[in-house]
Amino acid sequence: MDKxxxxxxxxxxxxxxxxxxxxLVRNRRLGGYRFLRQVPIDRYFADFVCEAGKLIVELDGAAxxxxxxHDERRTQTLELFGYMVLRFPNERVLADPGGTGDxxxxxx
Length: 108
Hints:
This protein has five helices and four strands; from the N terminus they run ααβββαβαα. The protein is of the alpha+beta class. The chain has one domain (3-107): Endonuclease, Chain A (3-Layer(aba) Sandwich). A hairpin with a 4-residue loop joins β2 (44-50) and β3. The radius of gyration is 13 Å and the shape is globular.
């Protein structure tokens, strides 16, 4: 499967936390910043990307448990492309989307 088709599939099959984050950031709702979702960068797909702020927001659910080394290598690779990577647990996004948005705005 090519990267474009895979990105489309990831956007279509969002988790509840990803849907919540997308409602928060889509259409420049968060501080006027434009975010894209499931953006291919190198061999990875970044969950949410703000090009203007060179920021990637990653949401970590149960699939990330026990994969801390993989996530760290992924973060290091994305940072090589000039991005800062913020990670939030899915539970945080679902419980406090406004606070999550505030934390993102502080970085931007």
